[in-house]
Structures are given as C-alpha cells and as structure tokens.
Amino acid sequence: MTTEVTMDKIVSLCRRRGFVFPASEIYGGMGSSYDYGHYGVLLKDNVKARWLEAMVRERDDIVALDSSIILNPRVWEASGHVGGFSDPLVDCRTCKQRFRADHLADPEHEDVRCGKRPSKRPGETSDCDLTEPRQFNLMFRTRVGAVEATGTDVYLRPETAQGIFVNFKNVAQLARRKPPFGIAQVGKAFRNEITPGNFIFRTLEFEQMEMEFFVPPSEADEWYRYWVAERLAWHVRYGIREESLRVRPHEADELSHYSSGTSDIEYLFPIGWSELEGIANRGDFDLTQHTAASGTKLEWVDSGSGERFVPHVIEPALGVNRSMLAFLVDAYEEEVVGERERTVLRLHPQLAPVKAAVLPLIAKDGAMVERARSLYEELRRSASVEYDDSGAIGRRYRRQDEIGTPWAFTIDEQTTVDGTVTVRDRDSLAQERIPLENVTSWLAGRLVEPWSAPPRH
Ligand code: ATP
Question: Is the CB of 262 under 6 A from ligand 1?
C-alpha cells in the first residue's frame, strides 16, 4: 500500500526528530515562522551546498555573490517593489480573516479557508462580509539610525535578486566574464505574507537560491529553455520523483510586469500542485531600471570590438525551505518490515543530514565499543556520522531510518574475530559484511555514486 504523505505527518516527524519547530513556541509561537533544529540545519545546509555545487563549482560561467539584506531604499523604488510588490487582499469583517483575492477567485485553491463554520469558502454564506480587494505591500519596513525622527526608512529585502543586479558592473569587471555568464546568491529574504503558511512552504522569512544569468538579447529564449530543463534535472538528480514534478508556463495575464516568459516548476505537495521554483525571462528590465535610477550604466562593453548591449536576464529562483519540504515529502515513507512498522526518509545520500551511523551491537562490550568509537572518530573527519549505543539495535536502526541515514555500520562479535563489520542499507535493508579498514573508502565511494529514489511500496 502506498503511503499517503500528509502535511501533518511531515510536521510531526520534523517536530519529533528535531528538524523544525514553531518559532518562539514558549510564547505561543509566531505565525508562519519556524526554527530549525540540528537535523533541519544539516539538511538545509546540504540543499544549499548541492545547489551551489551545480551552479558554481561544476560550471565555468557562474560566480558567487553575497549581498546585503538592507540596501539603499532607492533600489526597491527602481525595481518596482515599492510601487508594485503587493498582493490584493480581501478581509472578512465577520471572521476577521484575510484572503488573497487571486486565491479567492480560484475555486480549487487550498489556502482559502473560512474562519467560521459551516461556511467552507469565504463568501459562501450570508454571514460572510467581505471587503473589496485592497493592495498590501509585502515588504517589511524598518528604520536605520538611532534617532527615530531623523532615521531613514529601509526595507528587508524581499528577494536576493536585486542585490545581484546592482552589483552587475562590479562582478562583470572583477570576474572578467563576458555574457553569457551568471551570478548566484543564497541568502535570506523577507515577505510580509498574510495567507496561512502551510508549514515551511510559505514563511515570513526564508532563504532563496537565486541565479541571474546575463545573456546577449538574441540568445534569451534559448537560455530560458535551457534553464527550465537544467533546473528540472537538478530536482530529479537529488531524488525527487519525476512524476511529482511538472513545468507550468505562466499565462500572459499572470506574467510579472518585467517578464516576457516565466515557468514554474511545480511539485505535488500534500496541499496539491504548487510552485517549487520559478524560472523567469526578465529581459533587460532590471539593468535598464537601475541604470536610469542610479545614473550608472549597467551594460556590457566589449573592450576589443567596442560592441555594447544591455544583457537580458534569465532567473531561476528557488526557496531553500520549500525545496527542503519537497525533498522531505518525496522521501517520506511508512512501511511494515517483518511485524513492525517503520517510518523512513529515503533522502538522497548527499542530502541526508547524517551519512552513516556507527553502532556497537552490545553497549557494555568493551572490545566492541573500542572498535566502534575508533571507527566513528575516523569517519567523522570526512563525513557527518553518528555514534549510538543506546537501546536495542532494532530501535537504533529505526531512529536512523526516521532521519534518513543511508547506512549503518554495526560492530558485533564477528568484528572482534575477523575484523569485518555489517553494513545495513536504509532502503533495501540488505546487510553485507565488509572489512573494518575499508569502511571509510567504502562510504566515500557510495556517497559520490548516482542515486535515484527507489519505487514507492
Ligand atoms: P508564491 O506564488 O508561492 O508566493 P512567488 O511566485 O511570489 O511565490 P518568487 O518571487 O518567484 O515566488 O520567489 C522564488 C521562490 O522563492 C519561489 O519559487 C519559492 O520557492 C520561494 N518563496 C517565495 N516566497 C516564499 C515564502 N514566503 N516562503 C518560502 N519560500 C518562498
């Protein structure tokens, strides 16, 4: 029987095993805000590392950047965010809830839940008293300066992209790159989201992985198609099942003001098909806007031929937290093994927070413990590994299954006799014996092998 993966099950696992907690919980929590515990941090770091690897390390045409969260407020005027980065909102005077007008208009949309019963959809009963849609800016505003009266209003960045555009000239010169080339950035972004969060799918603060790819205008369409395919392949490479992904090109009336083409890579989340990543053909909008507003020409000039043009930009933009949620949902499985149930996260080994567990079969056996501790010390120099000697071996395996640890090395009586250990595979449950001295190289080899999700049971 296939596991039905609900958001409740994911939330419960994340909480139970310390991946993600509600933020400031002892004060009653904070809507749409979450804190990440030990395994959550490790998983999130691995998602970012795999993205940076694919974007920067494995390529010659993309460089990295880390720009400020607080920028000169004129950046956000020029980018159109001060005037236009808003959602039309509808309030209900009866139940005091807020809804996005575009979500209300969509009969299928999951985010739309009325606060009162028996009405299921806002506006459905005569009790519902909805306002006209009003624009609501999504940017968080704060003040820089010690004195309130003389301070300056600034914004927490709602996306990392603008930090890249305003650095175009610096990076193009220093990195000695010629279009097509890209600038990649991972960092926090903040949005005053008002609709219910659906766990870490939509939060007030989140991390983005954005890459702006600057190309000669005549090549923009070709690069746009290239990046849609490339980004789709990345999700599959790290284990998302192809049948849970689809590409949805935006309709003309959905396109942002700057975009001549946008496609969402959608994932079948427990809340239904929803945007995982957006890939936009932004044309020359951003560089042109910042050139006009700052007076600094953001264009490409070829020092040899003197040829000049304003590059067009292709942008793949993915939320770290949303990506982590998709990986968790896709990896989650419940199954019965023998007589017992287990919950397992079949995460790609390169995403798994812990790569291997080292387990002495009998915690009180000095010889086993000594060998297990020394193997653990050796492995931890190159990989994230855990030592666990508490409880029955079956329970220890299940603990590791729940956090997605791909392999466990068990030191038992035979180890003390012939120097071999048992390797247990999380997915197949197969066990094999390998020499203790080969464990480090065995693990290193397995970690770089291609991997794909096993079929769901
Ligand atoms: P949505 O329609 O879901 O609000 P968007 O189209 O406004 O998203 P973009 O501006 O394209 O999102 O941002 C790029 C990516 O950043 C999204 O595909 C998503 O992965 C992530 N993202 C955007 N807003 C949030 C948020 N509030 N919480 C978590 N991730 C987010």
Answer: no
